[in-house]
Write a structure and sequence with these properties.
Elements (H helix, E strand, L loop, with lengths): L6 H11 L1 H16 L31 H29 L1 H21 L3 H29 L2 H30 L5 H20 L6 H11 L6 H19 L3 H21 L17 H5 L6 H16 L2 H6 L1 H7 L7 H25 L1 H24 L2 E2 L13 E2 L4 H18 L1 H12 L5 H53 L8 H9 L1
Helix pairs in contact: 1-5, 2-5, 2-6, 2-7, 3-5, 3-19, 4-5, 4-7, 5-6, 5-19, 6-7, 6-15, 8-9, 8-10, 9-10, 12-18, 12-19, 15-16, 15-17, 16-17, 16-19, 17-18
Pfam families: Sugar_tr (PF00083)
Subcellular location: Membrane
Main location: membrane
């Protein structure tokens, strides 16, 4: 088939589908500014009455304890975990496009609720609802992108998903910096901006087609039953329409591609041991379908590898650094300008991600993981050393000093910021794009969908644990102790990559599956 001219609509569909990741990254970016002093959190100089759980008023601030800050920061992740379980069971029944439309709706409702309700419980409910949208979006987007993309751009588009998330983080940092200058109500505007972006996402998704491969799966499934001729014909026509939009090709070429897809689907169905391997294309009538979803655990090596990568990318601290970036810059002595360097972090992450996506097929997965984690370990060693020289601005013992009063000697603050930039760059060279790329490669086809859901669930669960634990550990261990723990976990990650992670560059999925069985 002549490929020239069809990529415009593929990129158009990618732009709106990947906006779900953009909105996830945006919330990560604004989080540290939302809970910063002078925003949701009362400033140290504030002497007026603080808001309570249910007190009414738009000008309120709150005395948030470190556990409360951790809970607020992790609410969206709790929602994402909950919706990931729903995706594990029902996503393939409703389709990729509908999943993204549900995600966009939840994004809109959650952001407006958190920004508009003048009580603290409204923030909690809004962020939890927003998180439900994150779970749907993170499950549907990579599958949809892979299914609509021509072979020659599929790898690049799937990898670009990470770059879109990082772009969202950068925009979140930028929004946090600019909205913080508007005063104590700036955090509401930060959150509300995500609702506007979600509305644009919803409008765009309305104009993109359903995944042709998903429709082909439904055609093949219905074709095996009786009395479903009309449904088969309608879904076949929808698949042809979707391919015509995406490929911008002649009717004959589209028919030929659809027939190829249908033949591949029929071969795949014939290879399944039972109907459970086909994810929920019929009504969910039997609880035994959960058993079919758990077949992913019959493959221990890829499951250990996949879950190990997503856990290690969380416990080495990078998400915690992003969620609490503004506080770290305050400790480094940047005072009221702490939000501005966060914008620099977002820009550095974006540049590092784009370079990695460009070179991933040249240097391989293992090498990039080694380089990225080594950069993180070096940066953590510098951060640990820098903060070991910290002191309390009020003159009390450092072990009794609140984290907001910790400062660094002149010169050490600059070293800490440089180390943070190196740290996030290392993550984007290694864990950021490579972990999810490998997860998409290492599982057999018949369990790839359910295994992907398990990886997402483990990822969000470990992210929740780190987000809640970080402010508590920051107060208990001081920054130097916290970064020392992350340093030890980064060294453990290097050992994990050396002993467990294979190189998959240049190998077919069948070759990778054979490696995983050894």
């Amino acid at each position: 088939m002549e490929q020239t001219g069809h990529l415009l609509n593929v990129w158009w569909s990618f732009a709106f589908i990947s906006a779900g990741g953009l909105l996830f990254g945006y919330l990560i970016g604004i989080n540290s500014n939302v809970i910063a002093e002078g925003q949701l959190q009362c400033s140290a100089s504030y002497t007026g009455p603080a808001g309570t759980w249910s007190s009414w008023g738009y000008g309120q601030c709150y005395h948030l304890t470190p556990p409360a800050q951790g809970v607020i920061s992790s609410l969206n992740l709790v929602g994402a975990c909950a919706s990931s379980l729903v995706c594990f069971r029902y996503a393939d029944s409703i389709g990729r496009k509908m999943e993204m439309q549900i995600a966009g709706t939840l994004y809109c409702i959650g952001s407006v609720f958190a920004a508009a309700v003048p009580m603290l419980w409204g923030v909690y409910v809004g962020l939890l609802t927003y998180g439900l949208g994150i779970g749907f979006a993170m499950h549907a987007a990579p599958v949809y992108i892979a299914e609509i993309s021509p072979t020659e751009v599929r790898g690049m588009l799937v990898s670009c998903k990470e770059a879109v998330i990082v772009l969202g983080i950068f925009l979140g940092f930028l929004s946090g910096w600019s909205c913080s200058a508007l005063g104590s109500g700036g955090w509401r505007l930060m959150i509300l901006c995500s609702g506007v972006l979600a509305l644009v996402m919803l409008m765009g998704i309305a104009g993109v087609p359903q995944s042709p491969r998903f429709l082909a799966l439904r055609v093949a499934s219905r074709g095996r039953g009786e009395g479903e001729d009309e449904a088969v014909e309608a879904e076949r026509k929808e698949a042809i329409s979707a391919l015509q939009f995406l490929r911008r090709a002649s009717a004959e070429e589209v028919e030929q591609e659809l027939e190829t897809i249908l033949q591949d689907v029929k071969v795949s169905l014939a290879d399944q041991e039972d109907a459970e391997a086909l994810p929920l294309l019929r009504p969910p009538a039997s609880p035994s379908r959960w058993t079919g979803k758990l077949r992913a655990f019959q493959y221990p090596r890829p499951m250990i590898l996949g879950c190990g990568l997503v856990v290690l990318e969380q416990v080495t601290g990078q998400p915690s650094v992003l969620y609490f970036a503004t506080k770290i810059f305050l400790c480094a002595g940047f005072g009221n300008s702490a939000a501005l360097p966060s914008v620099g972090i977002g820009l550095v992450k974006l540049i590092a991600t784009l370079i990695t996506v460009w070179k991933v097929d040249d240097y391989g997965r293992r090498l990039l993981l080694f380089v990225g984690i080594s950069m993180m370990a070096l940066a953590l060693a510098l951060l640990t050393w820098s903060f070991s020289c910290s002191y309390c601005r009020t003159g009390i013992a450092i072990t009794a000093c609140p984290s907001n009063d910790i400062v660094l000697p002149q010169g050490h603050a600059t070293m800490a910021v440089v180390a943070l930039m190196l740290y996030v760059s290392g993550y984007q060279v290694g864990f950021g794009p490579i972990a999810w790329l490998m997860i998409s490669e290492i599982f057999p086809l018949k369990v790839r969908g359910s295994a992907f859901s398990v990886a997402i669930l483990v990822n969000f669960a470990s992210n929740i644990a780190m987000t809640i634990a970080t402010p508590i550990l920051m107060d208990l261990l001081m920054p130097a102790g916290l970064f020392g723990i992350f340093l030890g976990l980064a060294c453990a990650s290097l050992a994990f990559v050396y002993f467990v992670v294979p190189e998959t560059r240049g190998k077919s999925l069948e070759e990778i599956e054979a490696i995983m069985r050894v």
